[in-house]
Amino acid sequence: MKRTLILLLAVFVSVCAFSQGRPRQISPNDTLHSTVVLPDGDVVFQIFAPNAQNVGVSGDLPYGSPIRFVKQDNGVWKARVKGIQPGFYRYGFNIDGISVYDPKSELAGETRALLKVQPKGDEFFAMKDVPHGAVSQRWYYSKTLGTMRRMHVWTPAGYEKGGQKLPVLYLVHGGGDNDASWPGVGAAGWILDNLLAEGKMVPMVVCMPNGTITGVPNEVPPFAQDMVTDIIPFIESNYNVLTDKDHRAMAGLSMGGMETIETCFNNIDLFSYVWVLSASFAPGQAPEAESARLKVKENAARMAASFKQLVFTQGGETDIAYQNCKNTRVQLDKDGLKYDYMENAQAGHSWGTWREDLRVLAQRIFK
User: Fold this and answer.
1) Which of 110, 202, 277, 325 makes a 20 to 30 Å CA pair with 43?
2) Judging by beta carbons within 10 Å of its beta carbon (0-12, 13-18, 19+), is residue 191 exposed, middle or buried?
């Protein structure tokens, strides 16, 4: 049992380490696709579990005999399954007798249990008796990535019957999560509903895209391209929104904060409000090298003129991205880039911090 627990912890850490801002060794898991549908219709299942003794898969799969996994030299267990007809199938891995969700699935963040300690009713993130907006799932084709992608979009109460064009906040989750995280554990819809009902924020559309891109060693640059090429055009083509930079904001936490830096520093004239939450330049990279790559010193004056707000936040000294962010800010100071810094909550690298971040930033932007 002890060895199994260590194995499961290793699988979890391999998925979440990037979101926590820690440099780690490259492994076969970085570019692994857990399921691959082959041209002949066969399906390959794969999972990185180098310390496992036995691996299996179960669920709705129409198989007549146990599926046999073979361990590869790189620690990846692989099985090829024949005879699966087109359709939708639930499945899960079994590692040494323990059922495990697929940590590489696009929807992995939605398979984890959510513990809800019922709010007392007066918290800023509680569901209150106020007009509520809508949170919708939207699918779009990403030309950047060559596949269909999903986002969640919050629109304020009354938006459907209103004719007013609204500004847009693009709000990105962290590593190991997906576009369902902000409206789920992040309680984004309830936070925004309450602020709007209290007259504390400007009505806006909030797009929560999927910052996770499986099968690539570094999701940050391709996501930034997807934002510019596909996500923003989709929102501006399908929603009644303002389309100038003064009415666009972007914020992201942890990995999403790095994606925010990548997107906004490379597209200075697209956004007026930029919030980087519990994040920094890429962990493990020298801040001066990242600054040079992003041409911060060269473009500091342009960014100062274009960004009405450039804000870095942390969850206090217990935030595991704290030192990385500090190192990044030291470099930005050297480069002459002006920004604001705040520690909104002493809740570390957690949703307690990021919910508070959203409460604060939503009241400040577009004013």
Assistant:
1) 110
2) buried
- Which of the 8 DSSP states describes residue 291? H
Nearest to 150 by CA among 124, 188, 181: 181
pTM of the model: 0.79
Torsion, Cα of 140, 141, 144, 147 (10° steps): 120
Closest C-alpha to 83, from 59, 61, 105: 61
Return the pLDDT at 4.
39
Helix (H, G, I), strand (E, B) or coil at 334: helix
Please write the tens of the pLDDT for every residue from 2-31. Answer: 343 334 334 433 444 444 444 446 788 888
- When comparing pLDDT for 162 and 137, which is higher? 137
Using the 8-state DSSP alphabet, how is residue 294 labeled?
T
Which H or E element spans position 35? Answer: strand 35-37
- Whether residue 54 contacts residue 21, with contact meaning beta carbons closer than 8 Å, is answered with no
User: Residues for the chain: how many in total?
Assistant: 367
- Sheet containing strand 273-277, strands side by side: 134-142, 147-155, 205-209, 168-172, 248-253, 273-277, 309-313, 340-342
Please tell me the predicted confidence (pLDDT) of residue 119. 57
Asked whether 10 and 102 are in contact (CB, 8 A), the reply is no
Q: At what angle do helices 255-266 and 296-306 cross, to 10 degrees?
A: 90
**Distance between alpha carbon 293 and the CA centroid of its chain, in Å?**
23
* Among candidate residues 64, 112, 61, the one with its CA nearest the CA of residue 91: 61
Q: How many CB atoms lie within 10 A of CB 85?
A: 7
Q: Are 261 and 223 in contact (CB under 8 A)?
A: no
- Measured at the CA of 87, the angle between CA 83 and CA 90, to 5 degrees, comes to 90
DSSP string, 68-93: PPEE-TTSEEEEEE--PPSS---EEE
Return d(Cα 221, Cα 282) in angstroms, integer. Answer: 11
Instruction: Extract long-range pairs of 301-304: CB within 8 Å, 24+ residues apart.
Output: 301/336, 302/268, 303/265, 303/268, 303/337, 304/337, 304/338
Ordered by where they begin, the domains of the chain are 2-105 (2.60.40.10), 134-364 (3.40.50.1820)
- At residue 57, the 3 state secondary structure works out as strand
Q: Which helix (H) or strand (E) segment is 10 a member of?
A: helix 2-16
